[in-house]
Amino acid sequence: MRYDLVVFDNDGVLVDSEPLSNRILAGYLTELGHPTSYEDSLRDYMGAAVHRVHDIVWQRSGRRLPEEFDDVLHTRVFAAFERDLEPVARAAEVLEKLVADGVRICVASSGTHERIRVGHRKTGMERWFGEGQIFSSEDVGRGKPAPDLFLYAADRMGVPPEKCLVVEDSPLGVRAAVAAGMDVYGFTAMTTADRLAGADRLFGDMSELIGLLQS
Predict the structure, then answer these.
(1) pTM to 2 decimals?
(2) Torsion over CA of 198, 209, 99 and 96, rounded to 10 degrees?
(3) What secondary structure does DSSP assign to 51-100, as a single string?
(4) Which of 10, 16, 90, 150 could form an S-S bond across to 109 if both were Cys, CB 3.0 to 4.6 Å?
């Protein structure tokens, strides 16, 4: 395989959290007087750190979200994760195969470290990723679509960007990977192929990833 490191996004790629979290986000924003549908949330915020929500609401309405917004949102999302979160289908099999083949892996997510850990504990993903393999937008100044998070992950893992492959399911994440000088494969399970047009390859089922990596 031509890559020394496979960098996985987390939400929507390893854990099936996007439907849960975006329904909660849309409902909370609507509750606060910023009408937002589930589809709006997916379009505007999927793959983004929470600071993007603050930025967009401010730009569109001229109103700041309340100080407790992040804490309330995270509390609601974590509760939903504990009840309903599942792993992405066949993601565990992909990770098992990569590790068995000696391929290095890590996570680079817009979510907080706590969000990543809650999701991994619930879905069993924690067995694949130790502390030195998890990177969050909390670790850098700017989240996706800036390249900072992916470059930080590569640096910490000791792998040059050109030897990294990113697996992403959001337009923001694809843009970040491209800006970081990394190849990126777009996962289209929840995002239409046209929105991930900047990716080097596209696939719709996680079982396809191993074949793509070997081709």
Answers:
(1) 0.92
(2) 130
(3) HHHHHHHHHHHS-PPPTTHHHHHHHHHHHHHHHH--BPTTHHHHHHHHHH
(4) 10
